[in-house]
Amino acid sequence: MRYVRYAFWVPLGIVLISVSLANSAIVDLKLMPDAVAELLGFNPSISLPLFVVVLGGIATGLIVGFVWEWIREHKHRRAAGGNAREVRKLSREVNKLKTQKNAGKDEVLAILEDAN
Q1: Keywords on this record (predicted)?
Q2: Do 10 and 30 contact (CB within 8 A), yes or no?
């Protein structure tokens, strides 16, 4: 399984490195359009290599997607937690009933009876 993982990550790393080297030109990243910047009186911008902008956009999209999915699955995690609590409660109740049923009996016979 480790080799399959390497077979995936090594080519991906090579592709990302080659894309990064091919797109190393500096670009200006503006946070708002010029018209809005004139109204507000400031124009925040930063100069970054193009590959940083592209890979940063991909990373931001992945993070937003993971958070969105985590929030969306909250009801399923809550239901699973409730089910797990119910299973633990019922398991304790079954053990309690088995103990009451087998009170005063030989331990080996009680185990054999519970197995059936």
Answers
A1: Membrane, Transmembrane, Transmembrane helix
A2: no
Q: Which residues pair with 47 in a beta bridge?
A: 28
pTM above 0.70, yes or no: no
DSSP 10-57: HHHHHHHHHHHHHT--EEEEESS-HHHHHHHT---EEEEEHHHHHHHH
Give the DSSP letter of residue 102: T
Q: Which pLDDT value is given to residue 87?
A: 96
Radius of gyration of the chain (CA): 30
Alpha carbon separation from 72 to 26, 59, 67 (Å, rounded): 38, 20, 9
Place of tokens 């019922």: 90
Burial class (CB within 10 angstroms; exposed 0-12, middle 13-18, buried 19+) of 19: middle
Tell me the pLDDT of the chain averaged across its residues: 88
